[in-house]
Amino acid sequence: MDGGAYRGRHSTVFRVGDRAIKRFKPGLEVNFRKEVYFLEKLQPYGFVPRLYGYDDRNLEIEMEFIEGQYIRDIDMGSEEGRKIVERCFEICYTLDRLGIQKEEMHRPDRHIIVRNGKPYFIDFERAHETSKPSNVTQFAVYVAKRLGVDFDDIKEVLGKYKLTYAEKDFEEILRKLGFRTPRPTVKD
């Protein structure tokens, strides 16, 4: 549907064919620049909309329009839903390793769109670079709430991950939430 408009607090997104034009409100140049910066930086990873161009003067970004389901509408208990959530965790881990804090991962309901089983992260206008990102831990709290997992069951491993950002601690978070099975140990 061409011409559809999606109004947010800081911008309006217009759909034109398979593209989206995101226009920021006057005075929000910093938000505009952040969005452009992170979309450019994350293009090689394939989990953000394709960036076609931007207009500094009009605070507009032209990008791929991602049509699909919001993460909030995904059944996390289904086999496909579980794969999508695991992929979202992998993306969050990538963001953490890159030192990028997205800022919406504790409530990502409208910041992750799933198209054909593939999650896309959108809206990077509030993102920033930091040595202590918390995308994985924020998303873990969100998923735990959705699945009815008691926070006390994951609190310790989340704290450990925040200290190390180690892959083994990341994998332990997924196991605690029921997304990975422990690898069998080999006995001598």
From TrEMBL:
Superkingdom per UniProt: Archaea
Listed InterPro entries: Kinase-like_dom_sf
The protein's name: Serine/threonine protein kinase
